[in-house]
Design goal:
There is one protein chain. The protein has twelve helices and 28 strands. The two termini are 41 Å apart. A six-stranded mixed beta barrel has the order 4-5-10-6-9-8. Strands 2-12-11-27-28-13 form a six-stranded antiparallel β-sheet. A five-stranded mixed β-sheet has the order 14-17-26-18-25, with helices on both faces. The chain is of the alpha+beta class. The structure holds 2-acetamido-2-deoxy-beta-D-glucopyranose (9 copies).
């Protein structure tokens, strides 16, 4: 039951996307190098406060960590709802509840309740911002946030990756300001493109069904759907499956169809369609049609092999290896890539590659965390474990460790409620040690979002948040993974990290 909860949670970070209104600029699912014209959208969503968006990432991480941990003890829905309401009101002190509900619907009613844990209030944020921005600028080599990043934070959108450099690979496209990573795969006969989220923290694969209904009524949004009328190779089993994301969920039937991933054809692959999606997935603004979980199939609610396991079993790749190069919007390189069956050795420094045993009994990807440091100062962390999860945007560390990290960063401050503020321009070096090698987080990723979008070199919300869950696992998401090459091997039950090329 724990593992089911945990795996179902893996998609929680998606919830943010319903806030992004990309309706005016539909994604072309065909163009390889399309960059969504984010500037066109700028006017549309700047009524959504970035603090509210950010809050959701933090809380999503907390919730996800809770569900992944053995204890499973996490924030209640009431706590989540209360804290998000608090945040919204704090961000818009002069507006009525009615006005805010209109703006932030559906969050304030349904899905928002799943999102949050206790977090800083904006009043405190503002004060921290005002008091510390003077000092912040003294400690910086980084230039703060670019207009493109702020635009992506507010408006979402997908920035497509370049053509992959390795065989058996797909571009990993960037959602918004590095909040998630998607690729295009093909399903059915005739084959059609579907945009799916690539998630190392879950093990179900699903896309929306032609019959899909949003929870509470309505259709499942402007997505690509699958069904027998659109695919001559489609088959359904008379079996249902579901996965629950707090208040968000997906339920549907088990199906089989031809699936092409990175040019590799899996005939009659078993997966799932969603016949009922919570609004978090059904929204027009959710920027993907489905999700591929790439943890181990022991976690699968559907009870099926994951695509990479299926590729290996069918001899299309040698081993069930999935490798990730997670890209960063600020780099403008668009070099994100997911590779199946091996590693892309053009993406990492071979002599830095470390391989460690997977510690998870459930099928997550968990590595022993040998240590952590700030600017080379060892934080004396021992006996801890890190869940490596592409499906989590931020990094959540046990409270004492998060506190220690930030106390070693010039200009950083705790908000007293589990969150941290950090100069947007910090160039502190926070590093995690795996397999005896220290992997530094790019300082740009330590600052997740500016407190005030008009002050991109002032104070930012830290990409490292605190959460005490279970036995003190760290939930290590994209804040860290953008700085390393990451590879998982189901056959060997091992994972690898390397420094980027
Ligand atoms: C849905 O997507 C299509 C093409 O992908 C686009 O033409 C249409 O405007 C979109 N509609 C909405 C409501 O987003
Ligand atoms: C809210 O209203 C007060 C008093 O009218 C005003 O001083 C303040 O600037 C307003 N704040 C915002 C964010 O509009
Ligand atoms: C923030 O600063 C203002 C003005 O200095 C003060 O009135 C307010 O109480 C402070 N808020 C908090 C939460 O400290
Ligand atoms: C940031 O890094 C540069 C060198 O890369 C260094 O000279 C500078 O002192 C650092 N900033 C601070 C505030 O220490
Ligand atoms: C891709 O595979 C082909 C055929 O095995 C091989 O010739 C080619 O060198 C490979 N390309 C890369 C980039 O590995
Ligand atoms: C979800 O699936 C589980 C396991 O098959 C089943 O027991 C449960 O009733 C399902 N829940 C819903 C809401 O369909
Ligand atoms: C860590 O190193 C960075 C980069 O040189 C520097 O800006 C920062 O002040 C250092 N912080 C501490 C606490 O030494
Ligand atoms: C609030 C505040 O005093 N901010 C200051 C921070 O430092 C920069 C550069 O020294 C000043 O321009 C800001 O006014
Ligand atoms: C807890 C657990 O099952 N750990 C396993 C992780 O993978 C290695 C390598 O296969 C196993 O030796 C461990 O037992």
């Amino acid at each position: 039951m724990q593992s089911k909860l945990a795996l179902s949670l893996s998609a929680l970070f998606l919830l943010l996307f319903t806030l992004h209104d990309v309706g005016a600029a539909p994604l072309s699912k065909k163009h390889k190098t399309l960059t969504l014209p984010l500037t066109k959208l700028q006017q549309r969503r700047n009524d959504l406060h970035p603090q509210v968006l950010l809050q959701q990432h933090i809380n999503r991480g907390h919730r996800r960590l809770a569900l992944m941990s053995d204890s499973g003890v996490g924030p209640t829905d009431e706590e989540l709802r209360a804290s998000l309401h608090k945040r919204v009101h704090a961000c818009h002190p002069n507006e009525t509840t009615t006005e805010l509900q209109k703006r932030y619907n559906p969050y304030l009613h349904s899905s928002v309740a799943t999102l949050d844990t206790p977090t800083p209030s904006l009043h405190e944020d503002k004060n921290a911002s005002a008091s510390s921005s003077a000092n912040a600028t003294s400690a910086s080599a980084s230039s703060g946030f670019t207009a493109a990043e702020i635009n992506a934070l507010l408006n979402g959108g997908v920035t497509d990756a370049n053509t992959p450099t390795a065989n058996n690979s797909l571009g990993l496209d960037i959602v918004a300001n590095d909040v998630g990573y998607t690729s295009l795969i093909q399903i059915g006969t005739p084959a059609r493109d579907f945009r799916v989220l690539m998630d190392s923290g879950s093990a179900d694969f699903w896309v929306g069904s032609d019959n899909c209904q949003a929870q509470g009524g309505g259709n499942c949004g402007n997505h690509t759907f699958l069904g027998e009328q659109r695919s001559s190779s489609f088959n359904t089993f008379n079996e249902q499956w579901n996965t629950t994301y707090g208040t968000g969920s997906v339920a549907g039937v088990k199906v089989a169809d031809d699936v092409t991933i990175a040019g590799l054809l899996l005939q009659a692959h078993n997966f799932g369609t969603a016949e009922v999606e919570s609004v978090d997935f059904a929204s027009d603004n959710t920027e993907f049609d489905g999700l591929i979980g790439l943890a181990q199939s022991t976690l699968s609610n559907q009870g099926f092999l994951t695509p990479v396991e299926s590729l290996a079993k069918n001899g299309l790749i040698g081993e069930a290896i999935t490798s990730y190069k997670i890209s960063r919007l600020a780099d403008g390189k668009n070099d994100g890539e997911i590779t199946f069956g091996g590693l892309d050795d053009t993406k990492f420094q071979a002599n830095t590659l470390v391989t460690v045993d997977n510690l998870s009994k459930q099928g997550f990807w968990v590595a022993a965390l040998d240590g952590a440091s700030v600017n080379g100062t060892d934080l004396k962390i021992q006996g801890q474990a890190a869940i490596l999860d592409t499906g989590t945007t931020l990094l959540i560390a046990p409270a004492a460790d998060a506190e220690t990290i930030h106390s070693n960063i010039d200009g950083a401050a705790s908000d007293g409620q589990g969150g941290f503020l950090i100069p947007c321009t910090t160039n502190a070096s926070v590093a995690l040690t795996f397999g005896g090698t220290s992997f530094a987080i790019d300082p740009r990723d330590l600052a997740f979002a500016p407190l005030d979008i008009n002050d991109p070199t002032g104070m930012c919300v830290s990409g490292i948040s605190s959460g005490n869950v279970g036995q003190g696992e760290w939930l290590v998401g994209d804040t860290f993974l953008k700085s390393a090459y990451f590879s998982t091997n189901v056959d060997k039950n091992q994972l690898s990290l390397a420094k980027l090329a």
